Amino acid sequence: MERINNKLHSFFLRFESGVNLIRLENETLQYPIIFSSKELLRTFEAYAEEARSHLLYGRTFADQVYKWITRCMPSSFPNVNDAAIHFNVSVRTLQANLKQEQTTYNRLFNKARMEFAVQYLKIPRFTVGEIAYLLQFSEPSAFQSAFKRWTGLPPGQFRNISR
User: What is the domain extent for residue 112?
Assistant: First the structure.
């Protein structure tokens, strides 16, 4: 066990203990946050969300279907029949399994579409029309409506804010 001391705390590091754990005194949690940064917060939130998704990967049938959809995209946009074939179940069984998890194939599909849209909007060379085409919307206005429904913002405004 290695002991580390600094001006505020003394603590021990224990390796290969089978548990990752940090114990803090209540007093420590009351310390003021001296510096804050919205940019840093966004960065850390993105890392946390990525770590969370890796931890939760494959826990539910809906997770498996969602991951499969995102692996298929953007080269193909699988429909519910394709998903049923891939998971070797009937369409009805696939829908029933997703319903048990309070979701639908369309919700998972649109979630994947939204995530691709967000990533594409971070690439300045793509116009909104091109993104609509890449995500197989019938026209740019259909994409704009869907994106606003998903995020509460039109794509152009979202792009400006996320720069």
Answer: 38-161
What CA–CA distance (Å, rounded) separates 68 from 51?
A: 19
Residues 25-34: pLDDT tens digits?
A: 788 778 877 7
| Tokens of residue 56, six digits | 């939760």
pLDDT digits (tens, 9 = 90+) for 52-85: 776 666 678 998 999 999 999 988 899 999 999 9
**Which CATH number do you get for residue 76?**
1.10.10.60
> Is 0.90 topped by the overall pTM?
no
